[in-house]
Design brief:
Blueprint lengths: L1 H10 L4 H4 L16 H18 L3 H65 L6 H25 L7 H6 L7 H14 L5 H25 L8 H34 L4 H32 L9 H28 L6 H217 L4 H149 L1 H39 L19 H24 L9 H7 L15
């Protein structure tokens, strides 16, 4: 089936095997039982391989360059994507700053509006005009915020969904606009407390919006230390400080105006001072110091931080420190002039917003600098990648030109060498014919030798059987001896275990006695403790009663003693409970004593039973030991008899060896005659075959590698066909001569001395039996010849006479199994 399937595949006009038969790696011929579905899958796989093999070397280099370009493009894409990530991150931070600017403007106006509204409500007519101006500025800021909200509000998730997911539904522009419109219309009709509450709620909405934009714009996640701490100033610290300043002004201004400070006022002022110092002043000061220290470590130093922002920072901190000192004076109970309070508060509030404007501008510069850095880095990386790719492709083109030109020169030289080796291989074939004749004579001598070998084999098998039985008997004796030794050891161990069991019984009894003593001691100690507790309970109750009596006598002044008496009574009650628990403990101890007694009894009984079992085991082990020793003695007699059989068989084997020596002498004479011819033929055939194979394979691979499969087939097909026909003719002649020599040698062969004519004496056998013997001898010689001479020839199949002698289909020289030889 395998040969038929293979033939079907090879005979097909479009077969993959006909196009390139060496493309089947390491598949034995007897496994090539192809089915239609197998051929379909096989055809698809091999077609892809042939497409690659048919490509010229230049195209392969072009394909390699294309692959390299694809890899570079992929890496370039990943690099650009990695660079775009921080760019997009910083751009979103700048969007957050854009949104916060109008929010800060609204916050500034609402803070001032709250302070002015409170003054107007306290009948300060001079504040009415500034109040109206502030309202106009807030309206303008609200309009600006509305415009920004429409542009980037969705980006910063100022939507219903975005706010609701963070539970910030109130922090939207519509609510701010609505509350401001309502507050502006009724501010003068409100009471001071109501005005402050509504202003505070509106300020809370604005600060909530700042918090939300900080979360959604990545500002709160800024990766660089300089911009992060500056972000902390603009996004968190300054809005908090601005809110705190207006709260302090609203709460302390009435105190300053009435020129009298109560203890409650001082406490309130002290709290404000502490929070302004620690949460605002020190935080902003430390943040800005960190900004200046870390800025040179990221993308270069920003000069405007020191030239522009540093003076603003100092001005704000100075004005804020002055305002803190004024508030601290109020906390100390000192009188503070109203003008000074108003002047310092207004300056601190104004400087805070001015400082925020400058800090926000510098933060934008830092973010812009970071974005420009990554954009420049992205551009440099892309430019360098493209330049390196073009350079590599140019080098590849030059290398391709150089390699192809040299490869073609090498192929030309190898083709000439291959033709010369082909001519020499014809002479080697003639020498191989002579070697075949000598090998045929040698085969006849080998037939005579085989008769003696068969007789010796029978004697060897007999000796081997006796030796095997002897070995088994010895092993059995050894095993029995080991068993006897083991049984004796078990008996000794059992005796020791019995002794140990008795000692364990005594030890357990001693431990039980100690446990009983410990339990008795515990019970006695518990009894004494119970008496002490009862005495304490009695004394405590008496003390409680006396305290109650004294408290009753003292009347109103004795209420404290009554409480003490009650607590003492509670302690007495607790002591009584403890006494009850101790009683329960005594009960448990008695139960434990009973359990210990029961366990001790069970242990003693168990150990006694185990001891009896060990004694019985010792008796049984002794009996086994006796039986085993008797079997060892009997096996010794069997071994002695087997040794006698081996001695007689060895004597007969000696005679067979003498006959083998005579046959070997005859075989050696024939071998000496063939030595000179075999040496000459073998050396020439091996050398020429190796050179032909190497040169042919190198030419095939180089032509295929440089110009593709089609050109290779067209260029070397004719010489290969001529060599195939010559080698087939030589093999036919060799097989005819081999048959004639084999028949002659078999007719003259004699049976060895003492051998019956049943194995290899063919003189009286029928003609069919003789022909089979000839075929057998030929089969023994032919593989030797093929393995030494023609196994690596370039022909694709064997001639018919060879197939008849060998039997069955012969493998092709293109069979991939020969590639490993």
């Amino acid at each position: 089936m395998a040969s038929e399937g293979l033939g079907m595949v090879r005979n097909g006009p479009d077969s993959i095997l006909d196009i390139h038969p060496k493309r089947i790696p390491n598949i034995p011929l007897h496994l090539m039982d192809f089915q239609p579905i197998d051929l379909l899958i096989f055809d698809r796989i091999k077609t892809r391989e042939i497409v690659v093999d048919s490509m010229s070397l230049s195209r392969r280099f072009a394909l390699l360059g294309l692959l390299y370009t694809c890899i570079v493009v992929s890496v370039l894409y990943l690099m650009i994507a990695a660079k775009n990530e921080p760019i997009d991150f910083g751009s979103l931070e700048m969007v957050g700053n854009i949104y916060q600017r109008p929010v800060e403007k609204v916050l500034r106006g609402v803070v001032q509006h709250r302070i002015l509204a409170q003054r107007v409500l306290y009948n300060d007519k001079d504040s009415r005009g500034p109040l109206e101006e502030t309202q106009k500025s807030i309206d303008a800021a609200i309009g600006e915020l509305e415009k920004i909200d429409r542009q980037v509000g969705e980006t910063l998730q100022f939507t219903e969904k975005g706010l609701h997911s963070r539970k910030r539904d109130d922090f939207k522009f519509a609510n701010v606009q609505k509350e401001w419109t309502e507050l502006k219309g009724k501010v003068l009709s409100l009471k001071p407390g109501e005005s402050n509450d509504q202003h505070a709620h509106l300020i809370g909405l604005l600060r909530g919006m700042i918090t939300h934009l900080g979360d959604t714009s990545n500002l709160i996640l800024d990766p660089d230390l300089d911009s992060y701490y500056l972000m902390d100033v603009t996004l968190l610290a300054l809005p908090q400080t601005q809110d705190r300043i207006q709260s302090v002004v609203v709460d302390l201004e009435p105190i300053v105006r009435r020129q009298s400070v109560t203890t409650e006022d001082r406490i309130k002022a002290s709290v404000f001072v502490s929070m302004m110092n620690e949460a605002d002043y020190e935080r902003i000061k430390g943040d800005f110091t960190t900004v200046l220290n870390e800025d040179p470590n990221f993308y270069g130093k920003l000069e405007t931080l020191e030239s522009k922002l540093s003076p603003k920072n100092q001005q704000f901190l100075a004005s804020y420190k002055e305002f803190i000192d004024v508030a601290n004076a109020v906390a100390s109970g000192n009188a503070v002039p109203v003008d000074k309070f108003l002047q310092t508060s207004n300056r601190a509030l104004s400087e805070s917003f001015d400082y925020w404007d400058s800090a926000d501008e510098e933060l934008d510069k830092l973010l812009t600098k970071r974005i420009e850095f990554y954009q420049t880095s992205k551009l440099k990386g892309a430019t360098m990648s493209v330049a390196l790719t073009l350079f590599a492709l140019g080098i590849l083109a030059l290398f391709n030109r150089y390699v192809v030109r040299n490869m073609r020169e090498i192929v030309s030289v190898l083709n000439q060498s291959s033709q010369q080796v082909s001519n020499a291989s014809l002479q080697s074939a003639k020498s191989a014919t002579k070697l075949t004749e000598a090998s045929t004579e040698q085969a006849a001598s080998l037939q005579e030798t085989m008769a003696s070998i068969e007789e010796i084999s029978a004697m060897v098998r007999q000796n081997a059987d006796s030796a095997s039985r002897t070995r088994d008997a010895v092993i059995a004796n050894q095993s029995l001896a080991d068993s006897g030794s083991a049984i004796v050891r078990e008996m000794i161990t059992a005796i020791h275990e019995i002794k140990s069991t008795n000692e364990e019984i005594l030890k357990q009894m001693e431990e039980s006695t100690k446990e009983f003593g410990a339990v008795v001691k515990i019970i006695s100690e518990i009894g004494s403790k119970t008496n002490v507790i009862n005495e304490i309970v009695f004394q405590t109750k008496l003390l409680s009663f006396n305290a109650s009596v004294e408290a009753a006598r003292a009347g109103e002044h004795g209420k404290g003693f009554a409480v003490v008496a009650e607590e003492v009574g509670n302690l007495a009650q607790m002591s009584g409970n403890a006494a009850k628990e101790i009683t329960d403990m005594l009960t448990g101890s008695i139960k434990n004593v009973n359990e210990i007694v029961e366990r001790t009894k069970v242990r003693v009984e168990r150990l006694v039973v185990v001891g009896r079992g060990k004694i019985a085991l010792g008796q049984e082990t002794a009996q086994k030991c006796n039986d085993t020793l008797e079997k060892v003695t009997e096996n010794g007699r069997t071994v002695s008899s087997m040794v006698s059989d081996i001695a007689s068989a060895s004597k007969e084997q000696s005679q067979g060896i003498q006959e083998i020596n005579q046959a070997v002498i005859q075989l050696d004479q024939v071998t000496q005659q063939n030595a000179s011819v075999a040496h000459e033929s073998s050396s020439q055939a091996d050398q020429l075959r190796a050179e032909a194979q190497v040169l042919s394979s190198a030419v095939h691979q180089l032509v295929s590698f440089v110009d593709g499969v089609r050109k290779r087939v067209a260029g070397i097909g004719a010489p290969q066909q001529e060599r195939q026909e010559q080698l087939e003719n030589n093999e036919v002649m060799a097989m005819k001569a081999m048959k004639m020599k084999t028949v002659k040698s078999m007719k003259g062969a004699k049976a060895p001395k003492g051998q019956k004519a049943t194995g290899l004496n063919h003189m009286d056998e029928p003609k069919e039996t003789k022909e089979k013997a000839v075929e057998k001898a030929g089969a023994n010689v032919l593989p030797f010849k093929r393995s030494k001479s023609n196994q690596h020839s370039l022909h694709a199949s064997e001639p018919n006479p060879v197939k008849e002698v060998v039997g069955g289909e012969m493998p092709s020289s293109d069979d991939p199994r020969f590639e490993q030889v």
